[in-house]
From TrEMBL:
Annotated spans, Disordered: 231-296
Assigned protein family: Belongs to the KIN17 family.
Name assigned to this protein: C2H2-type domain-containing protein
Biased composition range(s): Basic and acidic residues: 263-294
Start-end of Polar residues biased regions: 234-243
PROSITE patterns: ZINC_FINGER_C2H2_1
Keywords, ordered alphabetically: Coiled coil, Metal-binding, Zinc, Zinc-finger
GO molecular function: double-stranded DNA binding; zinc ion binding
Signal peptide (UniProt feature, chain positions): none
Taxonomy, superkingdom: Eukaryota
Domain C2H2-type: 28-50
GO cellular component, one term: nucleus
């Protein structure tokens, strides 16, 4: 069936569908082609162009997958850094932003089986601070750009300068309030207790000025209060004692002073919160730096070759002898020029020469004897103490010294016969 006429309703609908995001399971990463449904994807898999790309993939699988993994890591980290900075965000939300691009590198084309494994890889590499709680995995980018750090330092200095200016303005305002109060003749009076000596009476009188009022034009009611005397007698002079001096009461705050005090308390709380956040961030950076240093120390002896005599290996070359030895295990009898080895296949008399790229390590069982073939403790015989399947690593105990080496990756040790 031919294509619909250009400009027709069906053609416009098809173009609109092709522009938007579609199902990831129907996307071919090698051909960079998005199929609409399962039938279209099946037809694409049988096409000559797809088969040609698959033959290229078979010839250089490792390099192509590494390139895809590197591009996916770069796009994820760039999205996290540019859109969220150093904020703590949900890892899945960042992934949803990455896949908004129709032609993004898909996860199934990389070396990571899931987003969780990828997030753990970022934390292990020291690119992000990785945390997990009941809501899922969270990531926080660790800023290492010199220019960004300088900008953050200048922003902190500017904030400190603004704080100093605010304090100066506050003190200036207080002085102005005091000066204005003095200029208007406002006198502060403190309340005290009434004191009298023994046997004395207290008298209060009002002035002779009176109150008057009238009703009508010619007369009314006139009242005059000449004098009012209040005498307080001392009925118990024998038992009376002199009163103690009154304590000065606290000066009440004015409305302006209360507002200023509230503002100062609010600024102090905000500053304490900022300092707490900054302190937690520095602690996380120090912890991540210590982990990176420890990781670097342990990986200081890493080499690009790992073959050792008397270790068990697994053959992963499918093309060798038409797949006869694929996934077969064997023992390395001789190491040839660091990168090759003579391997005696188990349960057979065959001895074959293989490159290390055609072999992989064998983990073995718990409490079994293994040899560290790369990284820290290279060449040492050890006991397999704990296997961490989720992190693809294990804890080993070196037999000679009894030292416990944690989080040794699977490819850095192998079972011994």
């Amino acid at each position: 069936m031919g294509k619909h006429e250009k400009g027709s309703a069906k053609d416009v609908a098809n173009r609109a569908k092709a522009k938007g995001l579609q199902k990831l399971q129907f996307y071919c990463q090698m051909c960079q082609k998005q199929c609409r449904d399962a039938n279209g994807f099946k037809c694409h898999q049988t096409s000559a162009s797809h088969l040609r790309m698959m033959s290229i993939l078979r010839e250089n699988t490792g390099k192509i997958i590494d390139d895809f993994s590197e591009e996916f890591e770069k796009s994820y980290v760039d999205t996290l850094r540019q859109r969220h900075g150093v904020k703590r965000v949900n890892a899945n939300n960042v992934y949803q932003e990455v896949i908004q691009d129709k032609h993004h590198i898909h996860m199934n084309a990389t070396q990571w089986e899931s987003l969780t494994v990828f997030i753990q890889y970022l934390g292990k590499k020291g690119i992000c601070i990785v945390e997990q709680d009941e809501r899922g995995w969270f990531v926080q980018y660790i800023e290492r750009d010199v220019n960004s750090l300088k900008r953050a330092e200048k922003a902190n200095e500017r904030a400190k300068a603004e704080k100093v200016e605010e304090e100066k303005a506050t003190r200036r305002m207080e002085k102005q309030i005091i000066a204005a109060s003095k200029a208007q003749g406002v006198r502060e009076v403190e309340a005290t207790k009434m004191l009298r000596g023994e046997g004395e009476s207290v008298k209060m009188s009002l002035g002779k000025g009176g109150l008057s009022g009238g009703l009508g034009a010619g007369g009314g009611v006139k009242r005059k209060l000449d004098e009012v005397k209040l005498a307080v007698g001392d009925n118990n002079n024998n038992n009376s004692t002199a009163t103690e001096p009154a304590k000065k009461s606290a000066k009440p705050l004015s409305a302006v002073e209360q507002i200023m005090l509230e503002n100062e308390n609010k600024k102090r709380r905000e500053q304490e919160e900022k300092e707490a956040i900054e302190r937690r961030r520095r602690e996380e950076e120090d912890r991540a730096s210590a982990l990176r240093k420890e990781e670097k120390k342990k990986k200081g002896k890493r080499k690009d070759y790992w073959l050792r005599k008397d270790i068990v290996v697994k053959i992963k070359n499918k093309e060798l002898a038409d797949g006869k030895f694929y996934k077969k295990k064997g023992v390395v009898e001789t190491v040839m020029e660091k990168y090759g080895a003579e391997v005696r296949v188990k349960d057979t008399v065959d001895v074959i020469i293989l490159d290390q790229d055609d072999l992989e390590t064998v983990v073995g069982g718990l409490n079994g004897k293994v040899m560290i073939v790369n990284g820290y403790g290279r060449g040492e015989e050890a006991e397999l103490v704990e296997i961490k399947t989720e992190d693809f690593c294990a804890n080993l105990k070196i037999l000679e010294t009894g030292e416990l080496v944690k989080n040794v990756e699977y490819e850095d040790f192998s079972k011994m016969p």
